[in-house]
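Why Serine protease 16? Reviewers of the renewal asked for a concrete example.
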Amino acid sequence: MTAWLAQWLGPLLLVSLWGLSAPASLLRRLGEHIQQFQESSAQGLGLSLGPGAAALPKVGWLEQLLDPFNMSDRRSFLQIVLHSLGQKCLSFSRAETVAQLRSTEPQLSGVGDRQWLYQTCTEFGFYVTCENPRCPFSQLPALPSQLDLCEKVFGLSALSVAQAVAQTNSYYGGQTPGASQVLFVNGDTDPWHVLSVTQALGSSESALLIRTGSHCLDMAPERPSDSPSLRLGRQNIFQQLQTWLKLAKGSQVKGEV
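Here is what the prediction returned.
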């Protein structure tokens, strides 16, 4: 998990710091996620550092960076972040990325990256792009470059990926799955929320879209800094589960009578 965090931070920082602009809110949100991970580790949730993993930034690292961030010396800022992560450098070489993904040898870092890529290529896509002009990240990871990885790493063409996605949607129902007693929970700042069910499809297929919520944020432990929308979202989840459990218990009692 920590290795994934370090690898994700590299491209994020590079494209943000050397882009047209890099709003401080982006760094604050990044700091919130790292703090959340630190607190989860401290509470014994199994998110611990493995052998060879980079160290997480120390508490308060973001506050030290916000002033340099607003200054013109962006290289100094990036160097401080790399130091906080215990990294000397972060590669953004496409060829190196492909070579790492092709490797089937056990890895100390990037664990699961190859497997995840294979699943996206053979099941559901899930490729995140940044094609909107207002997007704060690089527009380089467009859909063709994502699909190109499937070809270079696994020999799977763009057509085969499209067919696999269509088959997955057909099997599971896509955005109209026809499920029962399912609550679809998403955050509106999670890029993947557009692939989910964000509006209720019926009394047994409910949907909850948490304002300013990021990926899986509702599943994290409660924190004093949680937003009102996140707290309300957790309450709604609890209430929905209570309703369905009462219905299930009532049906069970009727069956026994």
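The first helix runs from residue 2 to 17. This is the kind of structural detail the renewal will allow us to pursue systematically.
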